[in-house]
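pinging the channel bc i need a second pair of eyes. not urgent but kinda urgent?? the chain im working w is below, pasted from the shared doc
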Amino acid sequence: MALIVQKYGGSSVADADKIRRVAQRIAATKEKGNRVVVVVSAMGNTTNNLIRLAQQITSEPDERELDVLLSTGELVSCTLMAMALRALWYDAVSLTGAQAGIQTDNSHSRGRIARVDPQRILREIDAGKIVIVAGFQGMTSGSTLEADTTTLGRGGSDTTAVALAIALKADACEIYTDVEGVYTADPRLVPEAVKLKEIGYEEMLELASYGSKVMHNRAVELGEAYNMPILVASSFLEAPGTLIHGGVPMEIRNKVRGIAQDLNVAKITVLGIPDKPGVAAQIFQPLADGGISVDTIVQNASINNLADLTFTVARTDLAKALRVVEPVAKSLGAREVASDSRLGKVSIVGTGMQNTPGYAARMFTTLFKEDINIQLITTAEIRITCIVDEALVPKAVRALHKAFELDKLAV
């Protein structure tokens, strides 16, 4: 019997009717003679609603308590799914992340999985049960007397599913969502976007890291590290999805394969800092200690031994980042700290781009023709990202999709 891990996103389990429909899909998989483990997200907008509720209590909820609160969303959906399967006369059991053996580091709101102990899940499936696991959550490693609930960050249920598939040595890992697969761009912005039959881990990781909401980037990282293929498909339609895997054929390399966009971007500029060794470290080390990720970094040429340092963070981290940076900048004698939260990223992604001339020029020319000013640029081996005004991001995505002829892409 094949062991299959399936994950269903929040839109797939948004209400009782959808939970019952998903239960029927799970039952159909079981009927084919498979052993089935299912990971579920919180119902619909539950996580957002819980965050808003917490913020009504305090503008800065304690991270530990917030993790405990947010983890309850997945508990609701996994228990309801188990009930729905039992109503169909299938033996099912719901498990929290901790009961499923998911152990994490001590980072709240963005915990990373340290290890998975699958013994409880294996016992349950050996007993013939369908196991329903609450995604997005785990428990800190160490003594159970001191263990805390942690969450894995938004989209973390994908990571839960891939981690379980790896630990269980599953035959398949299937991610079911509200779209039919991975597209060349967000089909809500670009109706001409093409669904890809397959995509490599590297390309998918760049797309996920720079705005594509189809997959959690850490889930793709795990899949690549342990060579676990991941199928992304629709939970509402019986249609072929997109397979994320290694060994993508040579014919689809050396070309742009997708456009990603991200509006969760803010820029911080520290003006007039001394241009001397160690200054950058004094700014970025406290940010790292505070768990704030920094993306694009640009420092201008020194004038009179003074320079301006610009970097980007997630817009959701801006207030926290400013609280860290402003006192450091003052201690360094900087003239001013400025910020802008009205920005977005647009990226082109494709394997082999760095070794093939012309991609950057075409991207910059396309944005120029659309009168879109580029504020910052960052590149990687298979990606070029431009930071622009947030209001212009949809226009940029559509223009780049057309310029690189992705509507004609052979999938």
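so The domain at 3-178 is CATH 3.40.1160.10 (Carbamate kinase). and The CA atoms of residues 379 and 385 lie 6 Å apart. — does that match what u expected or am i reading it wrong
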